[in-house]
Amino acid sequence: MGIRMRCETWDVRRARAVVLIAAAAGLLTRMLIAANMPGPADVRIFQGFAEAIVRYGPIRIYEQPLPGLPVYNHPPLAGWMLLGLHELSELGIPFGTLIRSPASIADFFCALLVFEIVRRRSCAGTAVACGVGVAASPVLIATSGYHGNTDAVAITFALAAAHLLVDRRSPLAAGVCAALSISVKFVPVVVIPALFVVALRAGRPALIRFTAGFTGLVALVWGPVLVTVPQSLKENVLEYAGGSYRLWGLVRFADVLGLPQSFITFIQGQGHFLFVLACVAVGVWLARLRPAQLPGVVAVTMGLLLLLSTASALQYLTWAAAGLFVIGFWEGVAYGCLLGLTAVLGYQGRSAVHWSETVLHLGEAGWFVLAAALAGGVRKILAAQPAGPPQSPAERTSVPEPCTPRPTGSPVN
To answer: Which residues contact 75 (CB under 8 A, 6 or more apart)?
Structure first.
């Protein structure tokens, strides 16, 4: 309520400046952590991947045995990123700092992006709170500044694709961002069908431009690997189901309840594709009903993927962190703080994949918080005023300045 009452006191430029300052402070905090703390085992693993890519190249890496390293399960663009980071490390910049830079920088832009998304659906005051929330989110600071990985980069590109498609009416750029999201980390593939549904509803010109941007970038990045080592790419990336740890969500609860091992093996194996299809179906359904709420749809879909995930890793908590601020400020705060504590304590343990009982219980509570936030998000999306599909630049005559409070049906509270 307090946020809503101050909505009309915010000038959009001043609001944007506040979020920019908060995002810069958040970036500085993350980079200080990256420069002064060793990080989890993934930092060394990524360095090993980078050295292997220097030896074999970012294409042949998929077919190479990597003694002492886990399977290389990252999409093609990640390989080129690691190659570039290795070259920078040759200049004397520690690789441990460099590997956490992409996620930290992504959080900087994601804070600005969430502000722009929310202010079009609510008021500037709420948008400021949500943008600052992303910048200061404990779970994002932990997973980006300390852990690294590429999850935050992929999520930022996925939200950018939705924003560009329905808010900026730039389907070509949206298609490029959608392709970039799955080229960095494959998990946002669950939102791609929803993006295509909205592009289709926008009309043939928008669909053609979106498809051109998406397929053009996919052909450029994925094409050489698909032609050279298609089977290795399929096994390592497209069919990767995650680790077999029982730390989070459905698998954790199945283990606690003493369900048969055969059931747990199934849902962690071939059965996990059923959960992926469920996420896709929910995203497509919401996108068809409320195409104008596409950023919220992307947020719900990625959050649902985490909720139903049968794999466990602290960096996966990134999937829902920024998107929940698109759904609502308090949803983002509740999730960010509780799961931020989970991440911090998890990283303080002997291993990021061996959680203490305290961390396991915090994760269980966080799962229910996420479930409640997603249920509320679906309700808000469906309650939002139906609007027509996004128009192409030639069809629209003006874009209103949506900085006044919206009705309670807005997807952001």
So the answer is: 182, 183, 184, 185, 186, 221, 222, 237
Cβ atoms of 303 and 368 closer than 8 Å: no
Q: List average pLDDT for each run of 10 residues in the chain, which is 413 residues long.
A: 54 94 98 96 95 96 93 95 96 96 98 97 95 98 95 98 97 98 97 98 97 98 96 91 85 94 90 94 98 98 97 95 98 98 93 90 98 98 75 42 41 36
Please give the backbone phi and psi of residue 354, each rounded to the nearest 5 degrees, phi first.
-130, 100
Please report, for residues 246, 265, 351, 365, the alpha-carbon distance to residue 354 in angstroms, rounded to integers and kept in the order given: 9, 19, 5, 18
Name residues whose C-beta falls within 8 Å of residue 303's C-beta, 6 or more positions apart in sequence: 319, 320, 323, 324, 327, 370, 373, 374, 377
Residues 188 and 73: their CA atoms lie apart, in Å, by 15
**Chain-centroid distance, C-alpha 265:** 27
Do residues 307 and 251 touch, judged by C-beta distance below 8 A? no
Contact 310, 267 (CB under 8 A): yes
Separation between Cα atoms, residue 76 and residue 80, nearest integer Å: 7
Q: Which two tokens stand for residue 361?
A: 């219980």
- The answer to whether residues 411 and 293 touch, using CB atoms and an 8 Å cutoff, is yes
Question: Long-range contact list for 364-371, CB < 8 A, 24+ apart?
Answer: 364/252, 364/253, 365/338, 366/317, 366/335, 366/338, 366/339, 366/342, 367/248, 367/249, 367/252, 367/307, 369/334, 369/335, 369/338, 369/339, 370/303, 370/306, 370/307, 370/320, 370/324, 370/335, 370/339, 371/307
How far, in Å, CA of 288 to CA of 102, rounded?
A: 33
Overall residue count recorded for the chain in this entry: 413
Do residues 319 and 276 lie in contact, with contact meaning Cβ atoms separated by under 8 Å? no
Contact 15, 128 (CB under 8 A): yes
CA distance 203 to 390: 9
Q: Residue type for 201, please?
A: R
pTM of the model: 0.91
